[in-house]
Amino acid sequence: MTWAAFLAAWALHFVAAASPGPAVLMTARVGVTEGFRSGVWLAVGIGLGAVVWAAAALFGLALLFKTAPALLWGYKIAGGLFLIWIAWQMWSHARDPLTSATEDQPTRSIWSAFRLGLVTQMSNPKPAVFFGAVFVGTVPPGTSLPWIAALLVMVFANEFLCNIVVARAFSFERTQAAYTRMKTGIDRTFGGILALLGVKIAAT
Questions:
Q1: 43 CB burial (10 A radius; 0-12, 13-18, 19+)
Q2: How many CA atoms lie within 13 A of 127 on its CB side?
Q3: Which of 14, 61, 141, 166 sits CB 3.0–4.6 Å from 27 for a disulfide?
Q4: How far apart are CA 182 and CA 82, in angstroms?
Q5: 1, 143 contact by CB (below 8 A)
C-alpha cells in the first residue's frame, strides 16, 4: 500500500465521518443534554464501532453482504428499528423537563455513553458497504498488517475527532440555554430526523 492510497482512503472516510447521520445526530443531542464528557465517551463508542465495520470490510464482510443480500437486509431492518425506537424515546419524552448536567456530574455514566455510541454506530450496516467500496480501490491484496493497523487507527481518529467537535459545539452553555427554551420542538425534530434515518437505513 502507498501513502497516496492511504491518504485517499483517509480523505474519503473523513468526509463520510463528518457528514450528518445517526452518529452525528446522537452526538449533538448528547452534547446538548448531558455535556461534553458524555459526548466524548459517546464518540469513543462511535469510533470503535466504525473500526469494527472497517475491519469487517477488510476481512470480507462487505463481500458477504454482497453475496448474501438477505443477511444485509435483515441487519438493516434490525438497525433501522433500533434507531426508530431511539427516535420514539426522544419524541415521547420531549415535554419532560431537562435534567441539569455538567461536566462534573454527567447524567449518563461513562459506560452508558460508550455503549450508546457503539450500538448507534453498529445499528447501521452501511459503513461496512462504504468501507468495502473504499478499500477495494485503495487497499491492494496482501497489504501488510502495519498498514491495516494504520487504516483502523485512521478510521477511529476520524470518527472520534468529528464527533467530539460536534459534542463540544453543542455542549456550550449558550447552546444548552437555547435548547432548554425550545426543548420540546428540538427533541421532536431530532426524533423525527432520526426516525427518517432509521426508515432510510431499513428501506435502502
A1: buried
A2: 29
A3: 166
A4: 26
A5: yes
CB 89 within 8 A of CB 33: no
Question: Where does residue 124 rank: exposed (0-12), middle (13-18), buried (19+ CB within 10 A)?
Answer: buried
- Cβ(15)–Cβ(160) below 8 Å: no
Tell me what the pLDDT averaged over the chain comes to.
81
Q: Which three cell numbers stand for residue 28?
A: 449533538
Is residue 72's pLDDT more than 60?
A: yes
Q: 76-88: per-residue pLDDT in tens?
A: 787 678 778 877 8
Q: Is the pLDDT of residue 138 over 80?
A: no
CA distance 33 to 180: 9
Q: What is the pTM of this model?
A: 0.77
Q: Specify burial of residue 20 (Cβ count, 10 A radius: 0-12, 13-18, 19+).
A: exposed
